[in-house]
Amino acid sequence: MPLFSKNKFPVDGRVAVITGGSQGMGKSVAILLAQRGAHVAIIARNPAKLDSALEEIRAARRSAEQKVFLYSADLTRGGEAAAALAAVQAELGTPDIVWTCAGGTQPGYFKDYSSAALEREIGINYFTVMHTAHAALRLMTSAGATEDGRKRHIVFTSSVLAFYPIAGYNSYSPAKAAIRALADGLRQECLLYDIDVHACFPATIYSPGFEEEQKTKPELTKILEGSDEGQTPQQVAEECLKGLERGEALVTTTLMGSVIRGSAWGGSPKGFFDTLFAMVLVLVWSVVGRVVDGDVVKYKKKLEKEGKADGK
Ligand SMILES: NC(=O)C1=CN([C@@H]2O[C@H](COP(=O)(O)OP(=O)(O)OC[C@H]3O[C@@H](n4cnc5c(N)ncnc54)[C@H](OP(=O)(O)O)[C@@H]3O)[C@@H](O)[C@H]2O)C=CC1
Ligand SMILES: CCCCCCCCCCCCCCCC(=O)[C@@H](N)CO
């Protein structure tokens, strides 16, 4: 292996926990890590979906020595997250990698949600991540350093919407932005413990969750995200892993994702080209932001012609 390509995210022989590992991106991440030699535990609510995913993960293993495990829990509750991770520790050992993929949204116009629905979206997209990270960090820190001296990792799954929130996702993007903030702050704090913290920022993933989204997604939102080609869950898992292997703190999975992130780096760790990108994009966005807002105004005028209020 060339000198400068040292893998910063080895998974071989390590214990990896994936929340939301029963379908979509989470299942693809679990399969990919099993193919690379990890012991894999998945956590989600629905036991039947967990069962069938675990069979696929078991079949993907490189060797029969690799252990697999599932645990059904609602991670919006702190107690269940702690119990789930304790069960993984008892079965497979202290987690070396905890990767949160649980999340999801029912897109819509903000005013149309009930207050309870808005709270549910924050629960699914932020509380699950917060509780999982909290429980993981407690286990990891009380277990002390790893035997082989390799770092442990906490990986979050956010969305490009954390950097550029668009109309129709306002129940969801704020939680994804909160994940980005947690990743940056916790990364700094975890320098104390030799634990790396990362966040991944996919754009459209053609997952079962995405199929559900399409049922309530406003036409305007479909127009705004129309330029995004989308990726399969497998592609997203592979791109995330590549970024993690390069040692990136914030990982994007497409060029468009890097472009959107380029305008929003703030104090997050970045490389040389990322810095150049950021300098250029601050200028580019003064045009792009206006163009995209212009699309919304165009859509409004179209609706007015048709005598409709907001496209519904
Ligand atoms: N699809 C997309 O276009 C994009 C998605 N993302 C993000 O990527 C991640 C994966 O998305 P996607 O592949 O679409 O996922 P899916 O919506 O297809 O699957 C979501 C997974 O999370 C689990 N889950 C949901 N709620 C909870 C909960 N309260 N406790 C425990 N597990 C839970 C689900 O299982 P169960 O229901 O049984 O609990 C399922 O395994 C999400 O965080 C999503 O927000 C980011 C960018 C784009
Ligand atoms: C120069 C810059 C050009 C930028 C143009 C703007 C394009 C916006 C694309 C937004 C894509 C939204 C993906 C949503 C992913 C997601 O998280 C949901 N599907 C929820 O799961």
From TrEMBL:
A Gene Ontology annotation in the biological process aspect, one of them, is: sphingolipid biosynthetic process
Q: Which domain of life is it from?
A: Eukaryota
**What are the GO MF terms of this UniProt record?**
3-dehydrosphinganine reductase activity
Localisation per UniProt entry: Endoplasmic reticulum
Pathway as given in its UniProt record:
Lipid metabolism; sphingolipid metabolism; Sphingolipid metabolism
Which regions span the lipid bilayer?
A: 271-292
Q: Name one Pfam family in it.
A: adh_short
Which EC main class describes this enzyme?
oxidoreductase
Is Transmembrane set as a keyword in this record?
A: yes
Record Gene3D superfamilies? NAD(P)-binding Rossmann-like Domain (3.40.50.720)
EC number(s) from the headed UniProt entry: 1.1.1.102
Q: What InterPro entries does UniProt report for this protein, alphabetically?
A: KDSR-like, NAD(P)-bd_dom_sf, SDR_fam
Q: Which UniProt keywords apply?
A: Endoplasmic reticulum, Lipid metabolism, Membrane, NADP, Oxidoreductase, Sphingolipid metabolism, Transmembrane, Transmembrane helix
Q: What are its GO cellular component terms?
A: endoplasmic reticulum membrane
Q: CDD domains, per this entry?
A: KDSR-like_SDR_c (cd08939)
Per the record, what are the reactions this protein catalyses? sphinganine + NADP(+) = 3-oxosphinganine + NADPH + H(+)
Q: Which residues lie in coiled coils? A: none
According to its UniProt entry, what is the function of this protein?
Answer: Catalyzes the reduction of 3'-oxosphinganine (3-ketodihydrosphingosine/KDS) to sphinganine (dihydrosphingosine/DHS), the second step of de novo sphingolipid biosynthesis.
* This protein's name: 3-dehydrosphinganine reductase
Upper classification of the organism: Eukaryota, Fungi, Dikarya, Ascomycota, Pezizomycotina
